[in-house]
Specification:
Blueprint (H helix, E strand, L loop, with lengths): L1 E3 L18 E7 L4 H4 L6 E3 L8 E4 L12 E8 L5 H11 L8 E4 L1 E8 L9 H12 L3 H10 L4 H14 L15 E4 L12 H16 L5 E3 L5 E3 L3 H16 L6 H7 L1 H6 L6
Helix pairs in contact: 3-6, 3-7, 4-7, 5-7, 5-8, 6-7, 7-8
């Protein structure tokens, strides 16, 4: 699965300099600091020790850090430093950030309200969440069913959907002539990594996690660099879930015939109403 960084292409969408008292959003998952995992809306969260990992506040939904699933999303405000210790810690946290970074590293935040995490994946984010939930619950039998039911034309339609996506992206021309049959995200094409935010990368993560916990010894193989990667049926099952997320999470990128191809495996294995 490919995640393009865009050599020679700006990796960040430049904007206003970081404002330490600015509003933003925070995603809380199993990988978050313990003080965040126990938090609720309406409260203040302060790191017990002022050192990494910092609390990352995305200034826009596109910049919210989402690397694990499931999780909770909060609208948050960075608490400005008051003491000399806090000011020094905030300065350390900001080290290395460009003036146009679209996120702030904080030592304390006020959690203003809890939001549906579906907004992280676009207008049809609820459908992407259903695919994520299916990936989390995937076992080897269901993976084999998805792999068997995947349409032979799905790779091509997934590629075409990505190609249509790149047409409207400010730096999309740098990637349009590449094969996108296994693309998860393209960081340099525009403000959002994909038409469903971090959705494709998260689907890869949940399927990999399921293969580790519920798969067999043959669920992984080694790539040319000696790194473990998903083997069939898990690899093809992952592709089938990516297909469904593309068709249902970004329906404007596929016509009805393409959507039928992309959702063939999903509709064979799951109820059509599930996505």
């Amino acid at each position: 699965m490919q995640e393009f960084s865009g050599a020679g292409v700006s990796m960040e969408r430049l904007g206003a300099p970081c404002e330490p008292t600015g509003l933003g959003s925070v995603f809380v998952s199993e990988a978050s600091h313990a003080c965040l995992k126990a938090a609720t809306a309406g409260g203040r969260v302060t790191l017990p020790v002022f050192r990494p990992p910092w609390i990352v506040v995305g200034h826009s939904l596109e910049r919210v850090l989402v690397t694990r699933w499931p999780g909770r999303l909060f609208r948050a405000r960075v608490v400005p430093p008051v003491t000399e210790e806090e000011r020094t810690a905030m300065a350390r946290a900001a080290r290395g950030l460009s003036s146009g970074a679209d996120y702030t590293r904080a030592i304390a935040v006020d959690l203003l309200e809890e939001l549906s995490p579906s907004v992280l994946f676009g207008a049809h984010g609820d459908k992407v969440i259903r695919v994520l939930e299916a990936g989390l619950a995937l076992d080897e039998e269901r993976a084999r069913d998805l792999a068997s039911a995947r349409h032979p034309g799905a790779d091509e339609e997934y590629h075409k959907a990505w190609s249509r996506r790149l047409v409207d992206q400010p730096e999309g021309e740098h990637y349009r002539n590449q094969d996108h049959a296994s693309t998860l995200s393209i960081a340099g094409a525009g403000p959002s990594r994909s038409p469903v935010g971090h959705g494709f990368s998260l689907i890869w993560w949940v399927v990999t996690k399921s293969a580790q916990h519920l798969g067999s010894a043959s669920s992984f193989t080694l790539d040319e660099d000696g790194e473990p990667v998903l083997a069939d049926p898990w690899d093809s099952a992952l592709s089938a879930l990516l297909d469904a997320a593309m068709a249902c999470g970004a329906p404007h990128l596929s016509d009805s015939e393409a959507a039928t191809v992309l959702t063939a495996a999903w509709h064979t294995v799951f109820s059509p109403e599930d996505v």
